[in-house]
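Methods, example record. To illustrate the input and output format used throughout this study, we show the complete record for Gliding motility lipoprotein GldD. The sequence lines were provided to the predictor; the line carrying structure tokens was produced by it.
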Amino acid sequence: MIRAIFSIFTLCILVAGCQHDPASPKPRAYPRIEYPERKYVQYNEAECPFTFEYPDYAEIKKKNEQCWFDLFMPSFDARIHCTYVPVTSRAKFDDLISDSYAIADRINARANYMQETPLQNPQRIRGMILTWTGPAASPMHFFLTDTTAHFFTAALYFDSKVNPDSLQPIAQFIQQDIKHMISTFDWRK
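The corresponding predicted structure is encoded as:
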């Protein structure tokens, strides 16, 4: 009788022991992203010859140059570097375009793919949007110009290591706000 109880007890321990999963490393996961509600604020600095709407979750961080600033998004650890340069001659305009594409070429060296999209917003301001996929330093650049007096350029950067898998959803969210920024951009009359 004792032998039968001991055998059943041993069998129960073996069965219970076999059902436990062995310890294994957990797959890496990314933190949950909380996207802010889309609301916009008017950028309307008197010293700058342009206006546009930018997301209210961004903070303006001015730089030393007039009309050079960052739209810093602390919740995403991202920045949109914004630069305005007056166009004083055709040669200056050509240099600004060349500089934009030189930066694009450096980013494209690490990217998987680059897309160029010509644009014209409702105020008839023309420009180009450059977007990259893969491990690029920046997922998006753009410039806006009237070709005779004004040139505005901006680029989205993250203040973290480039990891396309984790940054792509955030970049897509911010790119929608950048497209709103472009559509509301206008030169002061």
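Annotations derived from this record:
The mean pLDDT is 85.
The first strand starts at residue 40 and ends at 43.
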